Amino acid sequence: MTSSPARYQETKEHSAEIVRQVLALMGQHDAAFHPLNFAVWYEYVAGINSRLTQALNLALQTEPRLSDATLAGLHQEFVAEPDAQSMQQVSLQLQRVMTGVWGSASRAGERAGAYEGQLNELVHEIKSDAPLAVQPLISRILDETAQMGLSARELSSEVTLCRLEIDRLSNELTRALDEALIDPLTGILNRKGFDQSLAAMVEALPKTGGAHCMILFDIDLFKKVNDLYGHVMGDRVIQAVGETLKACAAHLASHSVARYGGEEFVILLPDCSLELASQVAETVRQRTKSIKIRDRRSKSVAVSITISGGVAALRPGDQANALVERADRALYQSKLAGRDRITAC
User: Fold this and answer.
1) Does the annotation count 43 as an active-site position?
2) pTM higher than 0.70 for the full model?
3) For residue 293, which of 201, 204, 303, 316 is within the disulfide window of CB 3.0 to 4.6 Å?
């Protein structure tokens, strides 16, 4: 994954100067002039990534002419954003570690408290019969034991607070990971969310007599909407189609609805016959024709739209890309035949 555009806040003039310096630096090294290497040098020259700067300077001490392998490692560690699966794994591992530490600290506190109580009883029994010279020593041992118990209880309390903080951060991480898979305009899965759902569907075996199906949609002549009415109206059309797809698939026990990209949408239907998937696609097509986007000022209908779709079923031995390619071919046939129709293959 590449780095987020939000981290680059330089003006056009400033960024142009940075690019000039980056190209000059890249020419001094053995690594190729490709985007990943460029991103490393850009953040280095811009001074926006202190950890990368330190690591790159260190690399230059042992490798004056940096290679593709070195820059790839720097990009992976300091520039590329971690993928959702890796972040989730880190979160789960941290939770397991903190649970273990919390249990150990709690048991230590309990043992220290029990030991302190037993020692108090023992001191009470022997203190009256002990020589005066020994009593101060016994009192000191008792005080130190009490201090040890207090320290153990404080540790247990601190670890408990840390565990609560880890749980809070883990919840925030889970929410952030979920949001990273959602298209902000429509509220359905984005392309990354689709990729993950597709991979999970393909990996799971369909039930006896069923199949895994995919419907790929494309809004007909969407460019005209943007050209005639502007991108705000185009966004409203995208949102309306997203709502339609969600509504048409809502009755299905297991499904995923995603914005595939631009004006393209997908419905994934695990354990579903090609016939039923075609029926769902036809329902989407019909309901999309009834969408009327009205002008907010005049209240008159501004845009009427249609949608084309391609339906495909996963075949034995298929990889995910084979299903996508077959659905795309079916969609192309719908477009070729005049749009506003569904084709299954």
Assistant:
1) no
2) no
3) 303
